Amino acid sequence: MRTKAAIAASVLIVGAQTASADTRSYQGDDFSIDTYSRTQMWVCDQESDGHEVKAEFRVNGYGNSLYLYDTDGANNGCQKLGSYANKIYQHRTIEVRNAFPDIVGGWVYPL
Fold first, then answer.
1. pLDDT given at position 14
2. pTM of the complete model
3. Is 90 a member of any domain?
4. Which domain holds residue 83?
5. How far from the centroid of its chain's Cα atoms is residue 106's Cα?
6. 12 pLDDT exceeds 50?
7. What is the pLDDT of residue 21?
8. Rounded to an integer, what is the distance from CA 28 to the centroid of its chain?
9. Half-sphere exposure of 15 (CA within 13 A, CB side)
10. Coil/strand/helix, residue 2
11. Which end of the chain has fewer CB atoms at under 10 Å, N or C?
12. Considering the domain boundaries, does residue 62 fall inside one?
């Protein structure tokens, strides 16, 4: 009986955290994240490898992708952009590499 109660409690806790969490797209340790009810975009370079990182994202009502850059190539903070009146509905993280193809993280779709 205790096992069933423990499983039910852990499922409830995980579900509650997921429902309130912002959505992240990763490329290695670098990431982009939508915040403030999907109206702000952040991009964070976490690798100190000399490569800039950008977030490609799309906002309801805009026709094209928008971009946000963290250009220092160092693990020393994040860049943010927003607030948009409409919601961000898709974003991904891209590591920009000069003279080589960029490394692209997967698209994520915030709820």
1. 37
2. 0.78
3. yes
4. 23-104
5. 10
6. no
7. 66
8. 12
9. 6
10. helix
11. N
12. yes
Q: Which residue has the tokens 């370079």?
A: 45
Supply the CATH number for residue 33's domain. Answer: 2.60.40
| CA 6 and chain centroid, separation | 31
Q: Residues 42-78: pLDDT tens digits? A: 999 999 999 999 999 999 999 899 999 999 999 988 9
Q: pLDDT-based confidence at 13, cuts 50/70/90? A: very low
At residue 37, what are phi and psi to the nearest 5 degrees?
60, 40
| Residue found under tokens 């915040």 | 35
- Distance separating alpha carbons of residues 42 and 8, to the nearest angstrom: 34
Residues 105, 26 contacting (CB under 8 angstroms): yes
Identify how many contiguous H helices and E strands the chain contains and give both numbers. 1, 8
Cβ atoms 32, 55 nearer than 8 A: yes
In a domain, 13, yes or no: no
Q: Considering the domain boundaries, does residue 49 fall inside one?
A: yes
Query: pLDDT value at position 6?
Result: 42
